Amino acid sequence: MFSSYIQRIRPINLVYGLRFQSKSAFPAPSLKNITSSRGLINKNDCFSPPTESHNAPLTGVAAGRTVDVIDGNIGQALKQLNNLVRSNNVAQERRKQRFYLRPSKAKAELRMERNKRRFGKGFKRLLQIVNEAKRKGY
Fold this sequence. Notes:
7 helices; mainly alpha; ribosomal protein; 7% strand; three-stranded mixed beta sheet; elongated; single chain
């Protein structure tokens, strides 16, 4: 019951970055459905607010971290969201921005990170040379 309710209302959950979407949840309104017994068209029945809001483009901070849940497949959407968060280094950025760093300290931090990466690349290359020499029998 709950899953069908979720598919029907198609909420946009920006906290977890999920947008529920189902092709069969909202049938297109026909003239037969929207006319009342008196033959008048009810304005409220013409538009489905969740459908109209779902078609609007996402903007703001959450736009880049939002994935669609298609036909109730939450597992696949969460996997896609985790990959997106991991590739954008969201956890690392969150840790970085936890405390304020003075500009001089921030520059020093960037320098240290750059040197650490450079050292790691050099060390990796050295290990490759050693392993190659070892393989050749030196």
